[in-house]
Amino acid sequence: MSTSPTPGLWRLSAVLLVSSAAVTFVISAVLDLLAERAAQDRLARRRASFGSTSEVTSAGETSTLGQQAMQEQVGLGVRPPVEAAVAGP
């Protein structure tokens, strides 16, 4: 003689399934939010440690950090990328 699942058991199973899906969704959303905030904080700290993104050169021209890095690489004998080599003054 076999017993079949009762309607109460099916209802309980459905409630457990829906509640576990909801809890999983909420935990996932919270962890995503925390990861995004941590990444933004890390980026803000990295930007703060580098200071300003541009500074005025002795000739009075504004030089970005990328241009400064390019000038340092050229000064060290590093070959510049093709775009910088082709671009005129």
Would you write up a description of this structure?
- By secondary structure, the chain is mostly helical.
- The mean pLDDT is about 75.
- Strand 1 and strand 2 form a beta hairpin.
- It folds into 2 domains: about 1-50; about 55-89, no CATH class.
- A two-stranded antiparallel ribbon has the order 1-2.
- It has 3 helices and 2 strands; from the N terminus they run αββαα.
- The radius of gyration is 30 Å and the shape is rod-shaped.
How are the SSEs placed, and which strands pair?
Layout: H1 7-50, E1 54-56, E2 62-64, H2 65-75, H3 82-86
Largest sheet: 2 strands, antiparallel
Q: Which consecutive residue ranges, at least 5 long each, have pLDDT under 50? A: none
Please work out how many helical segments DSSP would assign: 3
Helix fraction, binned, reads 55-70%
Total beta strand runs: 2
Report how far the terminal alpha carbons are from each other. 92 Å
Question: Keywords, please?
Answer:
single chain; 89 residues; mainly alpha; 2 domains; 3 helices
Give a short overview:
With 89 residues, the chain is mainly alpha-helical. It is built from 3 helices and 2 strands. The mean pLDDT is 75.
